[in-house]
Structures are given as structure tokens and as C-alpha cells.
Amino acid sequence: MKIALVGYGKMGHMLESTALSLGDEVVATIDVFAPDASVKVSAGDGAAVARAVKESGAEGVIEFTHPSSVMENIRALVPLGLPLVVGTTGWTDCEKEVAELAAKTGGTVMHSANFSIGVNLFYKIVEEASRLVSNFDEYDSAVWEMHHNQKADSPSGTALDIARRVMAGNPRKTSMVTDAFHSRPSPEQLHVSSTRCGHVPGTHTVFFDSAADTIELTHTARSRQGFASGAVHALENLKRMLDSGELSSGALYSMSDVFPGMF
Ligand SMILES: NC(=O)c1ccc[n+]([C@@H]2O[C@H](COP(=O)([O-])OP(=O)(O)OC[C@H]3O[C@@H](n4cnc5c(N)ncnc54)[C@H](O)[C@@H]3O)[C@@H](O)[C@H]2O)c1
């Protein structure tokens, strides 16, 4: 299919080579800074992003930019009515607004904070582990993540999704704390902490800790390849399922919708 890439940074470049290797065509690479992008737009000019996508003849769009730009881009792109896959993180507070915009304009958005197949398997493993461990009061739990020092948001969207899985499996953990503690944590609080360093593409660990031992579950991304192939497959599936009527336009979808039965 013909794909427009909004954001031509580390992920944009990886998405381009992945899409080409899967037989898709990249008809536009749109960015505010990248010198090798096919279209340059000014920061904050969502209308120019939408115009560039429309003029490219794209059949679908993948957006990986920056937490400060993503909502402007979504607001401009959704009314085009093209299947839109968003990988940029840091906008979970706005999901209701995006779902309403999609319903109002008939546009379709699919989002995941992490497109890696391994991470989506990890979510399931974590929820099941948390359910098992929650049978034993002596175990506490926590989530930790580490990413490269260029990442703009923390904790990562993936860490928040992992924390939701821990809480879904353990009814004793009812609130998430993403800041530092300045007093002793209470047992119902789940601590989600972050480290930023060097070039790490993404490491997430869940700890289950008792006086006797620690169980650690870790997912380590080796490169951005897994995110890129997940996002391109998500867009291909979304378009196919919209064309066949399996999914309806005018909605905000997630991994479980475009990879049914898998996650
Ligand atoms: N969902 C996932 O699986 C996943 C995986 C990796 C990264 N991410 C997220 O994707 C985003 C991008 O990551 P990256 O590593 O490619 O970052 P990056 O900084 O390498 O690239 C982002 C690019 O977006 C461009 N940009 C910023 N505002 C723009 C706008 N309004 N219009 C067009 N381009 C714009 C920047 O100039 C830059 O080239 C981040 O939010 C990151 O957390 C998500």
C-alpha cells in the first residue's frame, strides 16, 4: 500500500526501510527538521502536514513524531479519513478526545505505545504472573524502565501499560505512583520508575519481591526493528479490515483490534 510517514527521525527511517521490505510504497516522509525528509513543514502547522499527506496520494499514514506535536497532527490528519497509525507516546490523557474526533469525522486511528510483538506478549505474561503472585500477600510489586537519553516523556507509555497489567492481575495494587516517594509507600501503591541513559532502545522490568526472594521479568528491545514491523503490519491490517468491513471507520483502535486473537 501507499504509506505517508509523518515524522522522519529514528523511527521514521526504520519504518521506511521496513515498509519497503514488506512491499509497500512510501509516498511521503514529512518532518519539521529532518534534512532528508521529502516534505518539510513548520512546527505546529498540522494543516501543512495534512495537505502534504493528501497531495502524496497515500492510502494510509503512520505518525511517529514527538509528544508535543502528536495531538496537533492527529487533529489535522483524522478528518482526511485515511487509516492512521500513531506510535508517538505521551498523549494517553487525550484518548477520549481522539475517539470523539474519529466518531465525529469518520476518521480511523489506531494507537499502541509499543508495537513490538514481544512486548505485547510480555503484557500477557505480566498480567498472568501478577495474578499468580497476588495469591501470596508477602509479595510486593514494582515496574522499572530504561530508555535512551533523547526520549522526551517518562515513564514510557509501555511502562504505564505494563503497570496497568500488574494492577489488573493484583486487586491489592490500586494506585500508580510515577514520581519519587518522599514518604514510605503504602501497600496499595505501585511504583513505576524510569532511568534515562545513553542509547538504550527500551528495557522494562517487573519485580515481585518478598522477604525471601525476588522474581524479575524483563523485556529488552535490541533495536527499533520490532516497533517498525509491528506498526507497518498494524496499518496493513487496519486498512484490510476497514476495506472488508471487519472494522468500522470513525473509531480509535488498539493492538487487540488489528491483531485479533493474538493480544
Ligand atoms: N509505539 C512504539 O512502538 C514506539 C517505539 C519507538 C518510539 N516511539 C515513540 O515515537 C516517537 C518518535 O520516536 P523517534 O525515536 O523516531 O524520535 P526522533 O526524535 O528520532 O524522531 C521524531 C521526528 O519527528 C519530527 N517531528 C517533530 N514534530 C513534528 C511534526 N509536527 N510534524 C512532523 N515531524 C515532526 C522530528 O523533527 C524528528 O525528526 C516518540 O514519542 C517515541 O517515544 C514509539
Describe this structure in words.
The chain has 263 residues and is of the alpha/beta class. The chain folds into two domains: 2-115 and 224-258, NAD(P)-binding Rossmann-like Domain (Rossmann fold); 117-220, Dihydrodipicolinate Reductase, domain 2, CATH 3.30.360. The protein contains eight helices and twelve strands. The chain has helices spanning 10-21, 46-56, 70-77, 95-105, 117-133, 157-169, 225-244, 255-258, and strands spanning 2-6, 25-31, 39-40, 60-63, 83-86, 108-111, 140-147, 175-177, 189-196, 203-209, 214-220, 252-253. A seven-stranded parallel sheet has the order 3-2-1-4-5-6-12, sandwiched between helices. A five-stranded mixed sheet has the order 8-9-7-10-11, with helices on one face. Helix 1 (10-21) links the parallel strand 1 and strand 2 (25-31). The site of nicotinamide-adenine-dinucleotide (NAD) has 32 residues, from helix 1 and strand 2. The site of nicotinamide-adenine-dinucleotide has 32 residues, from helix 1 and strand 2. (S)-2,3,4,5-tetrahydrodipicolinate binds at residues 148, 157-158. Residues 118-258 form the Dihydrodipicolinate reductase C-terminal domain. NAD(+) binds at residues 87-89, 112-115.
Write a concise keyword list for the protein shown above.
single chain, alpha/beta, Rossmann fold, Dihydrodipicolinate Reductase, domain 2, 2 domains, five-stranded mixed sheet, 8 helices, binds nicotinamide-adenine-dinucleotide
